[in-house]
């Protein structure tokens, strides 16, 4: 399975005299797909948390229940599953079990009788999911988390505490339905546990969306995949951001590695896909080179476990992240196009979130400023989908001046906010 | 316990080797490594001789401890034929390359290629161009072709085909001062010589040069394929007018694919001379001649001791260019005729 992953480092190694930040994009391609065997013996566990609070009643609840019924029907028989209805307490209506025919039939019966009503308690729901996952054998663990409202646990503190307990145990596909949920709360879950967030504008679309999540989950084949980063004395890893389908900051996820100079970054579950990681290494005074010096600032590799054995994947050119200090500005001023693109995309997400926050707080001036910049960045990074979303909220004239529309649809704001961390993958390049 | 080789506390009580640099930790080795010649330690952090990874970097502080061979390499066929290529002082990689060889039928051949720095993978480009040109010349000589101009032009054509195969990223741009600038696939200049007895043939593309130096002085044999020479040659402008353009000396012919990776073809020039007097043939990249015009070259050679061998001569000329500033890669091949 040594050909499971391959990777390459992109960077401009030339730094201006005295520069201490070293940027690199590590591009990892995986060939792991269930069809060519699950290298880590990964078996799927799918958990569902359906928001059953009072606000879900009516059309939303009917569609959610229908989507759950259809999803359970589609589960592969060798997978495990459970269903939790989230109310003021988490109601585990279908405990973790094998997705065999009999179990599925029984589950469908339970689902058709499930009732809504109660409060929205994310931490409690996640705690219940954690308990169910703990009973399962499979190691690819995906939670589908559906809500239409705001977490009403008083503050985000109980959620944060629960997320710390869940970290590394499963990934979450969060979906907000309607226009009353808070994307930033779903992002909290995403930052801690991985996975994606998205909006479902129409309850009728729930079943299709769940089917897509299930397809994605079935394509995952590998758990326990880590970026492994060696750095020399005087160098620290300042940032690790993953650019897969979404932007995910992994900086705070770093763990100790096999020796003091090496750290590991968990990257979640992998199917057949390509992900880029933006890494920034910071050098202290003792580690900065002089003009003319060449320094190995990091060596990046990948490790995964296979049958209890750890396998290390070497990247092209040994995964070297280099720094060469130069007094030639022509060389040091060049920004690697991938670094530029990902820096732009990260700022884009930030500006959108700022803009939406200002808009919701009624600060139109601040919102205009942030969205104006976001629109420029979306253009520069070729982020067509995001540009369209921005233009639902605002008019942009020929000169690029942005003006927020008079009557903004709340759902459009939620959509822009929720999808702010989506990436526009760079065009395929031969390398 | 602190590792005696690298000084890092990265060992457990029973370990035999330092987890940091891989040095042995037995007491005997420890004493030995305390007595390590300081020259064998990392010049930046003092790590021991074992703290070097496969790419020549210090496993403790990441500094480069071993120089890649390409930074400076030499070749000599005899005391009369040798070449030296050097990274220079300002550059961070050596994009020049040269080959030197003697065919089975006795002809001497040498090729110098200078990879264009603002092209992709030019280090690889200049290398495959040189190696392919040499193979082409050998093959043509072996098949009995006796037209040296044609042999050298054919070598350039084959080098062109080879350089077009060097991998590149289509559409790659670098953002320079806020503006995206496209970067072409590998490009390189080339100058090749084929010497049979008193007959010297030279073929070239771009601005790498051949000089002939004898008792009368130094004389540039090749004519740079530069915009300057082109517009002056066609009578479009005078040299003074053309030189007002900052890019006047920019090359207009070279080896290399177009932006899409296609082969646009090349039109090399070639010339043949018959030697009547003894002298020295120099084949050089611009990293050398930017510091030495014909007068200076003649002067540099006059100052060499009588009977100096070609390798020593090439080394001294490279050293001269390094000391003069070394702002580009420097390659000098010397053939004493």
**Intertermini distance of chain A:** 23 Å
Quaternary state, please? Answer: heterodimer
Estimated share of beta-strand residues of chain B:
15-25%
Average pLDDT metric of chain B: 89
Shape of chain A: globular
Radius of gyration of chain B: 24 Å
- Provide the low-confidence segments of chain B as ranges: 27-32
Largest interface pair: A-B, 35 and 30 residues
Instruction: Summarize the amount of helix of chain A as a percent range.
Output: 25-40%
What proportion of the residues of chain A form beta strands (DSSP E)? 25-35%
The total of helices of chain A stands at: 11
How many β-strand stretches of chain B? 14
Reported for the largest beta sheet of chain B, the result is: 6 strands, antiparallel
Spans of at least 5 consecutive residues with low confidence of chain A:
426-431
Strand order of the largest sheet of chain B: 1-2-14-13-9-10
Number of strands of chain A: 20
Structural class of chain B: alpha+beta
- Which range best describes the helical content of chain B: under 10%, 10-25%, 25-40%, 40-55%, 55-70% or over 70%? 10-25%
The gross shape of chain B turns out to be: globular
Number of helices of chain B: 8
Series of H and E elements of chain B: HEEEEHHEEEEEEHHEEEHHHE
